[in-house]
Specification:
Length: 240
């Protein structure tokens, strides 16, 4: 199995990895000139390439791009409140491994953690990139800026938008995914729950309330389990 290296945009020709990618390829993977690797980019394109330089940056020669991406793969967006501390990093890593296309950190009314600024977002983007290398998923999960719930609900227009709910009348999540929609937006609230105003907002925007379990889950647990269910339910191979 070829080692994977990442570039933001793949093209035919000589590609220089960035400093972090070069250090990883040269010092951790210990790749050598003449070695063959798989190069992938943020959008999901991939190609075989050959290492042609190690200094000052690692360079890879790419002669052809393999553009056989699966057009039937469902695009999953997870819009979730942010858990405390290292639990947020862990959640980002695991959502990336599951193939989630985009993570939107939510600023909900009862959110405890409200990460603003570039540092946290850039850290999560690095985690998502490293996770993509390891998991061999197509592309890299996008990390959006901290987003208010009303803005995220408007952005979810045109997708199958569902929100995890503890209400008695919430539908089982698999019922909402029975027809394998091409794009899913999954809303997950803070551990203090959604406010009545937020639940009303979801209802007005046609965001379906769905039930996951009979227990109350931590944010990162709910995000991971729900994303995994969405990934399996929308994968044609899992239904064959």
């Amino acid at each position: 199995m070829l080692r994977r290296v990442h570039t933001s945009k793949l093209y035919v020709g000589r590609i220089e990895l960035d400093q972090a990618g070069s250090r990883h390829a040269r010092d951790v993977l210990r790749l050598e000139i003449g070695g063959e690797v798989e190069v992938f980019d943020d959008a999901g394109a991939a190609a075989r390439g050959m290492i042609v330089a190690l200094e000052p940056l690692v360079s890879v020669q790419v002669d052809a791009i393999d553009d056989e991406r699966d057009a039937n793969v469902t695009e999953i967006t997870v819009a979730a409140a942010v858990p405390k501390g290292d639990r947020a990093d862990w959640m980002v890593e695991k959502l990336s491994e599951l193939g989630v296309a985009c993570f939107i950190p939510l600023a909900a009314a009862r959110s405890v953690v409200l990460p603003e600024g570039r540092n946290k977002r850039e850290r999560w983007q690095r985690i998502a990139t490293e996770s993509a290398k390891q998991s061999r998923r197509p592309g890299v999960m996008r990390i959006e800026e901290l987003t208010k719930v009303d803005v995220a609900t408007r952005q979810a227009a045109g997708t199958r938008a569902i929100v995890l709910s503890t209400e008695a009348d919430a539908r089982p999540i698999l019922e909402a995914l029975a027809d394998a929609p091409p794009r899913i937006t999954l809303f997950i609230g803070p551990e203090g729950g959604w406010t009545d105003e937020e639940l009303g907002l979801f209802a007005r925007h046609g965001v379906a309330a769905v039930k996951l379990t009979d227990t109350i889950l931590r944010v990162e647990t709910a995000a991971l389990v729900a994303a995994a269910i969405c990934a399996v339910a929308s994968n044609p191979k899992s239904r064959s």
